[in-house]
Specification:
The chain has 297 residues and is of the alpha/beta class. The protein contains 12 helices and 10 strands. The longest helix is centred in the C-terminal third of the chain and has 17 residues. Pathway: Amino-acid biosynthesis; L-lysine biosynthesis via DAP pathway; (S)-tetrahydrodipicolinate from L-aspartate: step 3/4.
Length: 297
Amino acid sequence: MFSGAFTVPVTPFRNGGVDVEAIEGMVEFQLQNGIHGLVPCGTTGETPALSESEDRLVIETVVRMADGRVPVIAGSGSNSTDMAIKYTKMAEEAGADGSLQVAPYYNKPTQEGLYRHFAAIAENTDLPLILYNIPGRTAVTISAETIARLAEIPNIVGVKESTLSMNMVSDIKRLCGEEFAILSGDDPMTLPLIALGGHGVLSVASNVAPAAVSDMVNALLAGDFERGRELHYELLPLFRVLFIETNPIPVKSAASILGLCSDEMRLPMIPLGGENLDHLRRVMEETNHLLPTPEEV
């Protein structure tokens, strides 16, 4: 159902509030540069710092600007099952085409608890759901076996894989079959994941390099691994510098450098500075051919 290069956009702020005008410009920038879908209110969008009304505003703005041109998969998960259901219903009302559901963080449920959590959400929405497996942030891994159980539920259609394990990707593919979408949650892992039968990426780097990331994924999905590898290695310095500090700090600074939005963040996140900002600027200069600006659209 979902394949290609999906951008997980930053949430722009101005003077403490959500900058709707910047969101509108960013969505158009993404679409004009060939991105295949948008995932508002993910980790990159600072969703832990957004209120429920702000979540709705961001999702509704992205849906309105996308206007059916690409699917919008809203981040609406929580470590509370009741809250995840509430936010997912809100995303459905806001017009989202799907929902990204992170594994419950901090409370570290068992595999059976994970299964019941996601199954309960699925029962309460008609949206297709993508599981989000990111133990580095949640302190819990959804096992391949649990993902396979969940894949039997009709509206659980895929997984965003951020375990950094190709063994995990292989097991999910083996257990869940061809139709279940496996999407990379880490830009540098997109190439090997697609080589194992994956379907694309939910990307951070495409906030600033949407055309290059979508071109790479298009090539890989078409079986042109020579071109896909070429773009992978061209993008690799950018992939790496965008995680020089905790995401989304570097990518929001990069978006600010391109003029897409301000670098304003909400505590506990703070803008990039010092040597790391200098390093980001150097890498962006070296990869300038991969970074379109809004004026070029």
